[in-house]
Amino acid sequence: MNPWLDGSTVLANEWRLTVPILLCAFASQALIGLFLQTIFGDRLTTSERFALALGGWTIPLLLLSLLWYFSGWDGLFGVLPAVLLLLILFRLRTDLKPALHIPSLFLILFFFLSLLLRLAYASQTDLPLYFDSAQHYLIIKTLLLKSQTLLWGWLSASYYHFGFHFLAAFFAEAADAEIARVMLIFGQVILLLIPFPVFFIVRHETNSDAAGGFALLLAAFGWFMPAHAVNWGKYPALMSVGMLAWLWGMALVIFRRQNEFSSTKRRALYVLWAGCAALTVLTHSRSLILLGIVLLASAIAAWLDRRSRKWMHAALFAAAVAVALLGWLASRQSLLAMTFESYLDQDLPPTLLVFLLCIPAGMVYPRLTLVSVLTTAGLLASLFLPVTFVPGYEYSTLLDRPFVEMILFLPLSVLGGLGLAGLEQRLQGRLLWRRVLVLLAAGLVMVRAVFGYDLYPSQCCMIVGRDDLAAMDWMAKRLPLDARITIAAGELKVTVSENSAGYAGTDAGVWITPLTGRETLLYPLHWNFDHAQLFDFLCREKVRYIFVGETGLSFDRDGFNARPQWYRPLLSMPKTAVYEVTGCE
Known about the structure:
The protein is mostly helical. It has 2 domains: 3-459, no CATH class; 463-581. The protein is built from 27 helices and 6 strands. Strands 1, 2, 3, 4, 5 and 6 form a 6-stranded mixed beta sheet that branches. A hairpin with a 4-residue loop joins strand 5 (567-572) and strand 6 (577-581). It is globular.
C-alpha cells in the first residue's frame, strides 16, 4: 500500500465531498484570521494567526450547521464559500503583495502533504470502524430527517455529544453524500487540523518557529494517538480535542494580555471564549472536565509565577512526582495500563525524547511547562476519581481510559516543543549547533512516522466484512420492517471500577439498525443457544431472528446448527448467517 497514491485516489474519487469540506475549513480560517488580526493586531505573527485560525475551523461551521438545522434553509450551504471569495477579493484589493514568510509556507506545505496521508485511511474501508461509529451514523441519519420532535426525544433519553453529528449532517446534505463517507472524510480532516493550535501554543510562548514546528510534528505523527481513536469511532471526542487545543491557545492570548485591552473589549473576549467553550462541551460533554483541568493548572501556574522561581521549580518537581506516582498506580491495573500502550510500546522513542526535553523546558519556560505537567497529572488522576454524585454514573470516573489515552498527546507535544526551545536558548550564539539540534529532533519524529506510523484502518477494530454487507442488503429486502434481530454483545469496561458500563455490539450486527431500520437486541455473545432455557427466553421476548457476523466476536453457529427444530437458517454464507427462531409455540 502506498499512502500517497491511496490518498490521491480518495481525493480524486471523493472530491465532491472533500473539496466542500476543505473550502468550508479555509473560509472558517479566513473569518477567524480576520477576527484575530482585528483584535490582536501585531501581537500575533502571520504564522501564529494562520495556525490558530485554522485550529478553530469547526467553531463557525458548527454555528452554521445549527442554524441550518433549526431554520431548514439550505441556502446556508453557500454562505462560507461566498465569504471565502469575498475575503480573498478584499485581501487582493487591500494588499496586492501579501507577505508569505517561511513559517507560514511550512504550515501550508504541511497541510497539503498531510492531507493526502490522512485521506489514505478512507481508501481501505467502506464503513467507519467499531460499534461507536454505527451509533454516530444513526444519529446523523436521524438529523437528516429534520424531525426536531425525534431529536428532542432522543436528547431527553440519552445525550450523545451532538456537535459532530450536526456538522456531519450539514456536510452530507450539502454535498449529497453518503453518511459513512462523510464520517470517514470529515474525520480525517479533523485529524489533519488538530496539530495546528499546538504550533501556536508553543510558538507564541517561545517565539521559536522551529519549536512550534517540532510540536506540530509531534502532535501529528509523534504517537499513534489521537489518530488511532478513529478506529474506535471516537469522532465527537476527536473534534472536541481540536476545539480544546484552540481554546487553550486563545486563553494564552486573552488572559495573559488582558491588561492590554479595554474593560469592554476584555469582557467581550471572555464571553466569546465562554461561548466557544460551550460549543466544545456540546461536541463532547467530558470536554468540560478537561477544560477545568487546564484552567486550574493555568491558575496555579500564574499564581506561582508571581511569587518566585524557587516556588515554580518546587511545584514542577512535585507535579512530575505526581505524574510518576499516578502512572505507576494506573500501570498496576490491567485496564488502566492500556492508557500507556501507544506511548510506551510502539511509540517509546518520541515519549523518551519528550521526557528528556522536559528538563530544559522547565528551566527556560517553567510556567507553561507546569501547566502541561499539571494537566497530565489531572488527566491521570481523573481515571481514579468517581462521579458518584451524578445519578446513573455511580461506577464511572471523571474521564474514561480511552479519552485520557487519546488526549495525552496534547500536553506531551507542548512539552516537547518547549524543551526544544529551551535547548535553543541554551545554545544562543551557536547557530550551527542549534540547526543540528532542530534537524535531529524533527528527523527522529519523521523517521519514526515514515517507518512506524500506520495510516490505515486497524484490524483490531474492523467488525464489518463483505459477507456482512451482503447479509444486511438481504435483510433490508427480505425481513419485515418490524423484525427484531438478536446480535452479539460484550461487556464494556473503560474505568477503574470492575463494574460493567453496559453492553456493546461486538460484530457487524451493530450496523443492522442504521443500515436497514430493523430493531436489534444485544445479547451476550457467550450465551449457549442450544439450551432450552435460553430458547424459551427468546420466545417470550418475541425474538424471531438471530444474526451471526463475519468478523469481530460473534455467536457460535454450532449452537444453532445443533438445534434445527428451533433455528432455521434463512441466509447461510461462508462467514455470515441469519437464523429464524421457528420452534416457539
